[in-house]
Fold this protein.
Amino acid sequence: MKKRIGLYPRVRVEGGGRGVVSQAGGVLLAKTVRKTGLDQAISAALAPWRKPRTVHDPGKILLDVALAVALGGDCLADVGMLRAEPAVFGPVASDPTVSRLVDALASAGPKALEAIRTARAEVRERVWKLAGASSPDAGGQVIVDLDGVLVLAHSDKQDAAATWKKSYGHHPLMGFVDHGRGGTGEPVAALLRPGNAGSNTAADHITTTQLALAQLPKRHRRGRSTLIRTDSAGGTHEFVAWLSKQGRWLSYSVGMTITDAIHQAVLKAPASAWTPAVEPGSELRDGAWTAELDGDVLKGWPKGMRLIVRKERPHPGAQLRFTDADGLRLTAFATNTTDVPIATLELRHRQRARAEDRIRNARATGLRNLPLHDTAQNQIWLEIVQLALDLLAWLPMLALTGKPRLWEPRRLRLRLFSAAAQLACAPRSARWPSGHVPPDGAT
């Protein structure tokens, strides 16, 4: 019996293997592209930017960069990891060709952005039909969360500026479709803004909502079947008024700042007005209550808006704010949803916290920094990031079950995408290496 020296066995690695490829799990992403028709849609959308006698299709170039970002890349040059495996990903354009395409799309401005976004919306509707009961609108309603993201810059890039957190960079405003507790989420809007862009800018929230609605299937672009959910950054008169005027009214659940008027109304609310808060499954949440405020506190706001306040015992050691009352932490939100208990509405709004998970995933998928210099170039980069996040959301929705369907990008890369395999001359293009068992839920 061989004796081991140290904590790990001594292994000799040789590079002479035949038919072995790394990142073989990326085949799952490539198959998602083909199954959803994203390749054909993007290729058709970018056809105007294909020059005569060119070798590489602009749609394939853009999708290659998106695949590289989905696999963990964070700049255009990371497409080289696909170029190293032509048997898996096909011919991949050179770095200069990739850069020229991004420059050309950036120069085209809104026309190129509209082409990419239209293709994504077309494919998204197809994906949701394929997903069936697993689609985000299976319950009859779609929830879109809006939230800002701070992206730091370590050089003097165009529109980089000091942020409200005393850092330096950009402040994009993004929208994500919430897949609920049984899934993750997918991006539907990304508005690139300077670092000093205000959090409560109503015009930016309106633009981002319009971009998000354009990504949804047509039946969800107007009407109460779509809920727009934001934190207190969206709690402005202009944004709430705009939401109230859309078609048959969009549903909304918008965080509100605790003003002095709201604070005084809370202090005057009788004990009978407060209802215990609930958790998923209708379990009561200990130490938290909700109440609906009315009267003068609603003056100046759109007709039909409801103002709901939550008070809760702060966690041990938490610091109270000036807006808190009687030692209880106060939060508030506005909604136009009726005929639903206020405790249920409060729980629905609190679940907006899942947007923080979406932002964390975006940071891990190309949004840690904006790698290009010009704003127009970085807006194209944001579209590439969204394509990568779309694929990372659609793959679990269509092909995974159980716990793997909740895996975030980092775990997908470690458990699935980084697996090696041997090429096989058979109907199945690759097989798992000997001794390796695919994770539960992979189909």
In short: The first strand starts at residue 20 and ends at 21. The chain has a mean pLDDT of 89. The first helix runs from residue 27 to 36.
